[in-house]
Amino acid sequence: MKKATTLLTALLLTTTWVFAQTSTQTEKPITQGETYSDSLASVSVHAYSVALDSAQYVFGFVNQQTVDVVVTIFNPEGDKVAEFDGPARGKESFQFDSRAAGEYRIEITPFEKKEGRYSITLKLVEAVAEDPAGRVNQLMTEYSGDDVPGAAVLVMENGEVTFQESYGMANLTYDIPMQEKTRHNIGSTSKHFLTFGLLLLQEQGQLSLDDDVRDYIPELPEFDHPVTLRNIVTHTSGYREFLNTIAMTGRNPSTDLSQEQIINIVQRQPELQNVPGAEWNYNNTGYALATEVIERVTDESFPEWMRKNVFEPIGMMHTVVRHSPAQIVENRSVGYEPAKSGGYKEVTDLGGAMGAGGIHSTMDDLAKWIQNLLEPKVGTQEMITAMTTPDTLNNGHSSGYGLGLFIQEYKGLTHYHHGGADLAHRSMLMIFPEIGGAVVTQSNFSNFNGSIPNKIADLFFEDHLKTEPEQAEEDTTGESEEFAYDVEQFDALTGRYELSVMPGFVLTFSRDGERIYTQATNQPEINLTATSDSTFSLVGVNAAITFHRNEDGSADSLTLHQNGHHTAKRISWEPAPEELANYTGRYFSDEIETVYTVALEDSSLMLQHYQMEEDLELSPGDVDSFSAGFPIADVAFVRDEEGNITGFNASNGRTRGVFFEKMEE
């Protein structure tokens, strides 16, 4: 995955050991500071043991040199307590706490029976920190050091900063560490800054959120239903999402994109994807349009207007809006992702992000921003209330999203928050208004662990949070206690199930001996643990499955419990190769001026585009419908009255129903 460390530990001379390759291997002891190198065969299980006292924190990593590995941790009783399966190359990090003294086993297996070389390093073993600050430092171990992308953490209590620390490197090329003055790309966390600006203009009488967006951008198409400013900032407009749309064209998302070009994307859209206000569908297009509205109303550039009317009045003197990936921003952190060959790869920012993202800020400035949200000196309390009140959809249901912020309850406390994910940077800002608390994390590494902000909140706000029943053993993966289950019963549940909320996204359930597992479209396999004869938890993922069993033990549908409850229906269509041949050909979309080829290769239907590194396999769903991956997750073929295939509609979640017409051969 990632990692290194700057926690104060003794520097040990690193020793490298090389073992002979065997398909099965006895446990080999490993100690802090040692590195072992070896090769995995497709059926290998390599095991390492470490003797631990109780309440010790362990951090290490496997350098995946030429093979993707899965790391599994077992306690002295032989129970699995954690599993790590991240990037295919580079560092696969692991960390866990010992709850009992004894020998812990670290198993390394190849992902999907691949083979190749790896090395394992046990970097740190120390007592579990007892104070929140020390524990946060342990959580941040993998982002600490002078050779890894870094991160920053800020905690506020009663409106004041009580913890702030920077880790790792802001720039690996020039050996610049993360510091208090580092400007972080906060990505989509920028959205509520824009809505704050809109509300300032509304307070001044220069606009209303209930105005038609065409009052300000008249060149936008007039659809059957008006789209308001409120619709575009609550993700209910029905417009295509521009980043997902340009991804279908094969265009690199980091290339610069002007607001005029984003308007052109909407102009080419034949109809709205939904009636405005009818459904919530996360959408950066609306925020790009809102940026244009602010510029036209104020007759100033968005970065300049925000500087003079928002940032400087609040005292945020080190915060800027980056209008283009080419703009120089002093003291900014550079983004990184794992490189296929190991190490890290430098990554630029998204094009066209201004408004939807684009803000670069320091941790000190973000603290000032939070203080103003808690007790506004700039703006009004009515504005903050509007931002933090969930929008109501046309059917009367709450969307859970206000004006640029998610509003939820966390362990008994109201909190509003927004994350950010540019191509590499990761951001989270969480505010708990009832206690004047906040947690902010920033990182310039694409694989930053998104569960860390909640863990930090648990550490610092423990006295204010409702406790939850403690899970058995090390709670590193969120595993549930295993139910005594006859895995042969799972055969009746195996098969493919398509999510109703996201056509084309298919969950495939399988059994391999005693192992039961699932695999989502274009994602790795994930093991399942039975919690009853119809409910299963996903190992290492905060999610669960409930099958709706029939009397014979089979199921026609299921519910995925992850960020809500989502139904999926069993897929029964299994087309023969000769049927698949009917779908082959070249298809052209006039809307996005793009051509895709559908080809039959080795009994599989493949979607091809000259810009894609790899072809996408089309997996059958309902009749004439197939699932793929990104940038096209769902392909629904269209037939004429005679039954001839005339084209297909392509979707990828935020952009839906882009029509591709079949070209004459």
Q: What's a concise summary of this model?
A:
This protein has 665 residues and is of the alpha+beta class. The protein is built from 11 helices and 39 strands.
Topology summary:
Layout: E1 15-18, E2 28-29, E3 34-40, E4 46-52, E5 56-64, E6 69-74, E7 80-84, E8 90-97, E9 102-110, E10 116-127, H1 132-139, E11 151-157, E12 160-167, E13 169-171, E14 176-177, E15 184-185, H2 191-203, H3 229-233, H4 242-248, H5 259-267, H6 284-298, H7 302-314, E16 320-321, E17 335-338, E18 344-347, E19 359-361, H8 363-374, H9 381-387, E20 406-410, E21 413-421, E22 426-432, E23 437-443, H10 452-460, E24 495-499, E25 506-512, E26 515-520, E27 525-530, E28 535-538, E29 544-549, E30 555-561, E31 565-571, H11 577-580, E32 585-589, E33 594-601, E34 604-608, E35 616-620, E36 625-627, E37 634-639, E38 645-651, E39 658-662
Parallel strand pairs: 1-3, 2-4
Antiparallel strand pairs: 3-10, 4-9, 5-8, 5-10, 6-7, 6-9, 11-12, 11-23, 13-14, 15-19, 16-19, 17-18, 20-21, 21-22, 22-23, 24-25, 24-31, 25-26, 26-27, 27-28, 28-29, 29-30, 30-31, 32-33, 32-39, 33-34, 34-35, 35-36, 36-37, 37-38, 38-39
